[in-house]
Design brief:
With 191 residues, the protein is an alpha/beta fold. 55% of the residues lie in helices and 19% in strands.
Length: 191
């Protein structure tokens, strides 16, 4: 004979599930740093349901001095953060790059991004490219095409977002939706 669950137990289980979902309802802004092109992707994560809200790029002109390009990136990003009002921003960590010039440029853009997020007072999460690819595709060494395919599938989009910076930004946001909620639950149970 199966066990019976009282109405009180059902209600308490149901309210626990609802309170868990409330935390899991997040507006996440993923950012893929770059000086020429910075990709962004804003998603709503409600439990396991992911909904794309907005995505695109912030572009700067190559002919402009570096300081002017970083200023444009800062201003446009501050405006995006103000308009989108994310609850958390997820950014890709800088990884070792054999091209020193590219690594420095991405590092400078990343610094501007971290500054804008700090000025907005929004929590920041950082993920390595390996973590992002592993979370989104199940393979930490996935290609750009594999990441794009999964972004299209997970967000139920008609086409793969272009350029790759946009797909990467959405992948970073999705990575936080999965890893961030898992870390929150682990921390909650450790208390």
């Amino acid at each position: 004979m199966g066990s019976l669950i009282s109405l009180e137990e059902k209600c308490s289980r149901s309210s626990l599930a609802r309170s868990e979902k409330v935390w899991l309802l997040l507006l996440i802004l993923g950012i893929d740093p770059g000086t020429a092109t910075t990709g962004y992707g804003l998603i709503k994560a409600e439990g396991n349901k992911l909904t794309p809200i907005d995505y695109g790029t912030i572009r700067t002109q190559a002919r402009e001095p570096t300081a002017a390009r970083l200023s444009v990136l800062h201003d446009d990003l501050c405006s995006l953060i103000k308009t989108a009002a994310p609850e958390v921003v997820a950014v890709e960590q800088l990884f070792f790059n054999t091209n020193v010039t590219t690594a420095l440029a991405v590092g400078q853009a990343r610094g501007v991004i971290l500054l804008a997020v700090a000025q907005a007072g929004i929590p920041l999460a950082e993920y390595t490219p390996l973590q992002v690819k592993q979370t989104v595709t199940g393979n930490g060494r996935a290609t750009k095409q594999q990441v794009g395919f999964m972004i299209k599938a997970l967000l139920k989009l008609d086409t793969v977002p272009r350029p790759d910076d946009v797909s990467d930004a959405l992948a970073i946001a999705i990575c936080h939706a999965h890893l961030g909620s898992m870390l929150h639950r682990l921390a909650k149970h450790a208390k």
